[in-house]
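QA checklist item 7 of 12: single-chain prediction sanity check.
[x] sequence parsed
[x] length recorded as 517
[x] structure emitted
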Amino acid sequence: EGYIKVKVTHTSQEATLSQIIELVEEASSSKAPIAKLADRISGIFVPIVIVISLVTFILWMTLGQQTFHFALTCAIAVLVISCPCALGLATPTAIMVGTGKGAQLGILIKSAENLELLSKAQSIILDKTGTITQGKPQVTQIEALHMSEDELLTLAASIENSSQHPLAKAIVAYAKEKKISLQKVEQFEMLSGKGLKGWIHGKMILSGNQRLMKEHDIDLSPVEALAQQLSNHGKTPLYYAYDGQIIGLIVVSDVLKQTSAKAIEQLKAMGLSVYMLTGDNRLTANAIGKELGIQVIAEVLPQDKEKHIRDLQAQNQRVIMVGDGINDAPALMRADVGIAMTSGTDIAMDSADIVLMKNDLLDVVNAIELSHAVLKNIKENLFWAFFYNVIGIPIAAGLFYPFFGWLLDPMFGAAAMSLSSVFVVSNALRLRFFKPKYQNQIRKQEVNQMEKKMNIEGMMCPHCQKHVSQALNSIEGVKATVDLENHCAYLQLDHDIEESLLVKAVEDAGYSVKGFE
């Protein structure tokens, strides 16, 4: 309920590249449920083939007038042509190629079972902040009561400074831009799903939602009308109370990702029931839900997210959960398939079954398409594996010999058996050419709005931060957020801009650029 600062170091085995390699290897070596079905079929098929071979030998020896050599040749031909090599290759090759292709597309699949379940899901639940929205909210409005805006911002940023929530970070960043000095907060407490509580100058300060205010008997009548109006427009008003009375609202807006609406449209077109799960107040959530045309589950406490997954599963629904935060981890574990964004927390990625490297909801659509493609490929492989056996065994056994003189030499049987394996592997390799329906669109959007991190040397104070921010934001098509603590600037570029132009702007302001990431 408080906060803790931890510094963690990583070994090379824990680096991103090593984790990607490990995930792909694990997925390639794991078995999907359909592969287990093929194993069970093989367990029945092999004894049956041995029996057919023995019966073939006995029948030709007792009923026919052929030699021992002829009977033995037929029996061996049955064994050779029905060797279940192709059956054994049908699923692992498709899974190996499919998961490798997923990694190329930035979709890391942890196991083959998750890949298969993905294609069978009926419902998908999306977290809002950082998943549907950019997760980079900005302060858009301040409504102060009984004090000035700067005084409200001082108290608000002081209590929010110890929180890691995206809304809290936005308020603190805005206060720093305004050169607001933060106050010391004592007895800081994080109230899960409600907000924050602390003491400044011996008086209690509250930051959060209506539920928190009502629990502390704060009269909200002075701001109720405004708060409802803001919520109706999809904005998130945060309430602040100090010394037992409401002192104002700070409005923080988090815009939708460019591809969210298109991704949700395609998920619905696939027949999935799409839900948005959020802790936001119902009015704000409903405004976003209406815009996107999806069902909304609002005012959900973090510990209750997992319960909503269970409720859907109790209705015999296979559920996909997409999230990125610590509070999404239990829900990601509970879902039939959990999907996490790399922009989120490590625990979310650990809890998820699939990790999206590009943090784009359209990659959820692409992952489901890939899942369908892999399952279709496996079924094709199984068909061809059995097709060769069904056609080849009767000929190898000499069933048509009395009528047409057809007989299969064991050497040709071995060639046919090898050909079936080559056919199955070649069919699986076709997955390398899988192209997501929206791959080109994603590439366009990446070009249209690229993100870069610029490492800057020489910034010492908020004044420096302001200078660099003004220099970068003065360039057309650049939106820059300057981080003084980490000596860098996060850039969003609407079009391809020469790095030399960005460097010149910073150097002209009196600072040096160490490089880009």
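[x] summary fact logged: Confidence is low (pLDDT under 50) at residues 442-448.
[ ] second reviewer sign-off
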